[in-house]
């Protein structure tokens, strides 16, 4: 099943992927739409070291219908997965190499109920399950 279909199914079902309170570092949405120059390199870390998100960028934090919403994150090299979630959807970003993750979603027309603000939780996990989390306010319109 392709990623866009999974995204739409999660939205349609109103899946509650995270009932826990956010516990990450709150990030100003204006900062994640500005790509760092130069793009940082992954932080080298031992497998059992705490994971770390180094940088996060996405093309939009005020996401309209019909666009491709995409982003990139740099983490420590021991991050096994990077999850992107809200209370209504969740997906895992693709790891292109150790410490480098990317995502791309095509946003289709959403029902009015889902056109609102969300707290986007970006969660980096190592193989032991330790996590680093950044919380970014976003909106779908």
Approximately what portion of the residues adopt beta-strand conformation? Answer: 35-45%
How would you classify the helix and strand content by structural class?
A: mainly beta
Tally of strands: 10
- How many alpha or pi helices? 2
- Tell me the helix content: 10-25%
Question: Major sheet: size, sense and barrel closure?
Answer: 6 strands, mixed
CATH domain class name: Mainly Beta
Structural domains: how many: 1
Distance between the termini: 26 Å
Topology:
Layout lengths: L2 H11 L11 E2 L2 H4 L20 E6 L3 E2 L4 E8 L5 E5 L4 E3 L1 E4 L2 E7 L10 E9 L5 E10 L1
Structure, described:
By secondary structure, this protein is mostly beta strands. It has a single domain, classed as Immunoglobulin-like (Sandwich), CATH 2.60.40.10. The protein is 11% helix and 40% strand. It is built from two helices and ten strands, in the order αβαβββββββββ. Strands 1, 3, 5, 6, 9 and 10 form a six-stranded mixed beta sheet that branches. A four-stranded antiparallel beta sheet has the order 2-4-8-7. The longest helix is centred in the N-terminal third of the chain and has 11 residues, at 3-13. It is globular. The two termini are 26 Å apart. Residues 6-20 have low confidence and may be disordered.
Please supply descriptive tags for the structure shown above.
single chain; 141 residues; mainly beta; Immunoglobulin-like; 6-stranded mixed sheet; 4-stranded antiparallel sheet; 2 helices; 10 strands
